Amino acid sequence: MKDAINIPLSRTTMQLITKSLIAGTVLSLGSGFGTGIGIASVSAETHLMFNTSAQFNYNAYPWHQSFNLLWETLMSIRTRIGIWPTDTWTNYDDIELIFNNLKSAYGNVSPNGFDQDKWALPFLQHGKELYSQAKSYEGKNNTLASEMYLCLQILISLFRRTASVFRLGWFPWVHSNTSHSSLKKACWDLEKQTYERGLALAHYSFETVNIPFKLKPHDSVYDTIPIYVNYALSKGKRNGGSNRTKAKTVILVCGLDRYRSGQLTNVQLLLSLGMNVITVDMPGTGDAPITGRDTGADTLLWRQLLDWIEANAGAKGFDKDNLWAWGTSTGSYWSIKLSRAEKNRLKGVLAQGAASHYTFTRDWLESADHLSYAVDLWAPLASTFGYVDDKHAFADVASNYSLLNQGVLDQDAAKLLSINGVEDTTFPIDDTLILSYYGKGAFLRMAPGFDHMGEPAATEWLQNFWAAVADGSVANKY
Ligand SMILES: *[C@@H]1O[C@H](CO)[C@@H](O)[C@H](O)[C@H]1NC(C)=O
Ligand SMILES: *[C@@H]1O[C@H](CO)[C@@H](O)[C@H](O)[C@H]1NC(C)=O
Ligand SMILES: *[C@@H]1O[C@H](CO)[C@@H](O)[C@H](O)[C@H]1NC(C)=O
Ligand SMILES: *[C@@H]1O[C@H](CO)[C@@H](O)[C@H](O)[C@H]1NC(C)=O
Ligand SMILES: *[C@@H]1O[C@H](CO)[C@@H](O)[C@H](O)[C@H]1NC(C)=O
């Protein structure tokens, strides 16, 4: 376990230490490691975010108060730029129209804990209009090749734009079996349909696979693990046919509010580097066959997924010796477990925006509803662990879900890297730091001044990191 010498360090001192480490230092401070140097002497009671004044600075996040403020102070700005919770393909006018709708009915109502069907309804209605528009264009043909190409591009972006309306319709959480909201489930269904249609038209080699979940535990809700496989583009062409060129393969473990059809930005980055990408919904989200309630169940999910990858490596071109995982946001929690469960089959794991330990306290869960997350975080997170719309029951047992308390952090692991913003108020940065204190430690890249996932500062690092994975120089560089 961690050596805890009680040297009280101020937040500022800790930030200085942190800043001196951000150039990419391996922090490997497990048991038996000397306590005399640098960060090794930080006590468990010293935090950068958890239980500091920043955890309680609720005034900085006005959007929890009302739909009016959610639009004015967050959604209108994010939609213009096309960043989370929207994306590059989101159309401003769509979201403005939908929010005008919500504001006129619930302008002064808090979006936190808001009725899920009432949230979903205007997104569902508008999304369906866009969808039928797209379908009608799909039927029209133009004889001129260049015009056809143009039409196709418009059609592809219309499908993506529609998918992003449906995605926001179920935001921040849905699961096709355990969710109580039929309208959110309808949005999820239509997001997949529109995303798949858009991708099929575009220049991708793309496949939907339902892996038989033979190892499934008794409380599974489905018999399959649904995944999307995006095959590496071979010299700009579709890498198709029965014999695909062998390529490095990345498993993208999706998060709380973006599932296997919501990762196109990351998918495009990895494809552009010549790698295959598999996207999978994390437990308790999308169409995952298990929730996170049973802390042992995910091991079976990962084993089944890796077994399938191995069994299909030859036919589908997965380079078995170069399998990586990338967990984003809450997906990072599962990717850390994956780094332990599949340490022998994975070359490395990147956890971006980690939740690992301090997140799983009633104190943090209560605060998180008032901090940087766009709406309330506690109940949706609880729902992914199988405590659907029962956040208090989850808080009562939250410590059971800490990876430290489960002993997961102490276990042997594949190479683990983690990147996040130091000012993260979705999951405290202490959950990233702690990865370096136990077991084999981790390679940490922290971005001071940035919030959850370290974006947009993280983008360049991520590009360089994945490029190094792709060209094989990663072992020397990270
Ligand atoms: C927060 O810090 C105070 C001391 O400043 C301590 O008494 C309290 O137990 C801490 N709370 C948690 C949840 O760690
Ligand atoms: C569009 O063109 C394709 C290929 O030329 C043809 O197979 C299809 O039937 C046409 N569709 C319509 C609705 O005209
Ligand atoms: C969820 O899955 C269980 C087990 O497969 C099934 O019995 C139940 O009907 C499903 N519920 C819904 C709402 O789909
Ligand atoms: C696929 O690869 C196998 C073994 O490498 C080879 O025997 C076969 O001819 C290839 N098929 C095609 C269609 O290229
Ligand atoms: C939580 O962990 C405690 C201590 O290990 C255990 O007694 C309890 O049954 C667990 N609760 C749940 C709901 O798993």
From TrEMBL:
Keywords: Hydrolase, Membrane, Transmembrane, Transmembrane helix
Signal sequence extent: none
Keyword NADP: no
UniProt cross-references to InterPro entries, sorted A to Z: AB_hydrolase_fold (IPR029058), FrsA_esterase (IPR050261)
Gene3D superfamilies referenced in this protein's UniProt entry, alphabetically: alpha/beta hydrolase
UniProt key word Transmembrane helix: yes
SUPFAM superfamilies recorded: alpha/beta-Hydrolases
Single GO MF descriptor: hydrolase activity
Domain of life of the source: Eukaryota
Transmembrane segments: 21-42
PANTHER family the record matches: CONIDIAL PIGMENT BIOSYNTHESIS PROTEIN AYG1 (AFU_ORTHOLOGUE AFUA_2G17550) (PTHR22946:SF12), DIENELACTONE HYDROLASE DOMAIN-CONTAINING PROTEIN-RELATED (PTHR22946)
Protein known as: Alpha/beta-hydrolase
Organism annotation: Tilletiaria anomala (strain ATCC 24038 / CBS 436.72 / UBC 951)
